[in-house]
Design goal:
heterodimer, A: alpha+beta, hypothetical protein PF0899 fold, B: alpha/beta, Rossmann fold, 8 helices, about 35% helix, about 20% strand, globular
Chain lengths: ~110, ~210
């Protein structure tokens, strides 16, 4: 729902990183978005296309890598990945003593510049 | 050419949230980020809390709303320092909005600062503002399916107040399911059943608040 403020931060970071390296045009930005981050890739793309105009990323594409939700169970020592956006119990032993391992990511991982 | 960047997109917010946190802890202020859907009873809970504490503790409130000052007026009428933030459309408070109003509060006189977030069951859970803990309210009229539909806020909250329990006779809501699902998502969440209208359960909530700062 707040993808516009996320894209604002994303563009700020990308523009700064690009300029610090002496470049003036961003060709693509790669981001990693966890399925439990609450951010919808479609909404992120929509906001990105709307907000990139009049920045040095005006011609840039946005590549989104989705990260599934995974956890580690302290009871049965299993690593597991779930389809859902949240973990209610360990899929192996049904226990509740698990720790989330991934799924909340919201990171910029790569920039391509000209 | 390509190069790797390892940067959290919300890093700027988290940095300012850490700054706020330091300012609060230096001033001895315990901060609660209060979140819920619109109309679940955030301001009513604050009114009950202020009355229940009967001046036994220094309180302060930051009100976050898209527009309007109705909530701030309600708090001000009870003699508690309050600052209204209007987000002008944004669906949540962020750390910078809080940072900008810190000078408007008498932090030295405040033991617990409540930050009443914008009414929204999704976005506020994703932005730290410098709080010690997050607390959420779910009113039973919203339905027992909410924990599993909006898991993040239930996972992030240290306490869940289930409000409007005086409406139980009129609703087909399964309060036990709310409890069960909230505990599945967050085994350590502290749950209170309250009614801000009748005052039921408010004493237990206030006792818990007092243990946080003692």
């Amino acid at each position: 729902m707040h993808e516009a403020s996320i894209v604002g931060s994303l563009l700020d970071i990308a523009v700064k990183e690009c300029r610090e390296r002496g470049f003036n045009k961003i060709a693509s930005i790669s981001v990693r978005v966890g399925k439990a981050s609450g951010v919808m890739p479609e909404a992120l793309l929509f906001a990105f296309d709307a907000m990139k105009a009049e920045t040095i990323a005006a011609g840039a594409s946005l590549a989104i890598e989705e990260v599934p939700v995974s956890g580690y169970c302290d009871a049965c020592r299993a690593d597991f990945t779930v389809e859902e956006e949240f973990i209610l119990s360990c899929p192996y032993c049904g226990g509740s003593s698990f720790r989330a391992q991934s799924g909340r990511e919201l990171d910029i991982i790569e920039l391509e510049v000209d | 050419m390509k190069f790797k960047v390892a940067s959290k997109i919300l890093d700027a917010n988290e940095r300012i949230a850490r700054e706020n946190r330091k300012i609060f802890s230096d001033a001895g202020v315990y901060v609660i980020n209060l979140m819920s859907s619109p109309g679940a009873g955030k301001t009513s809970l604050l009114e009950n809390t202020i009355k229940g504490l009967k001046g036994g503790m220094g309180l302060g409130v930051i009100e976050g709303d898209i527009m309007g000052t109705d909530d701030a007026v309600r708090i001000e009428n009870l003699g508690v320092p309050v600052v209204q933030i209007n987000t002008g459309g944004a669906c949540h408070l962020d750390a910078n909005m809080i940072n900008e109003v810190l000078g408007d509060l008498p932090l030295k006189d405040i033991d617990i600062l409540f930050i009443e977030n914008v009414g929204n069951l999704v976005c506020p859970a994703e932005f730290k503002v410098g709080e010690d803990i997050k607390v959420m309210i779910l009113s039973i009229a919203e339905g027992h399916d909410k924990p599993l539909k909006y898991p993040l806020m239930f996972q992030e909250s240290s306490a869940l107040l289930i409000n409007k329990v005086d409406l139980k006779p009129f609703l087909d809501v399964n309060v036990e399911k709310i409890r069960r699902d909230a505990l599945s998502l967050n085994p350590s969440v502290k749950i209170f059943e309250v009614s801000c209208r009748t005052g039921e359960g408010i004493d237990q909530w206030i006792q818990w608040l007092q243990t946080l700062t003692s």
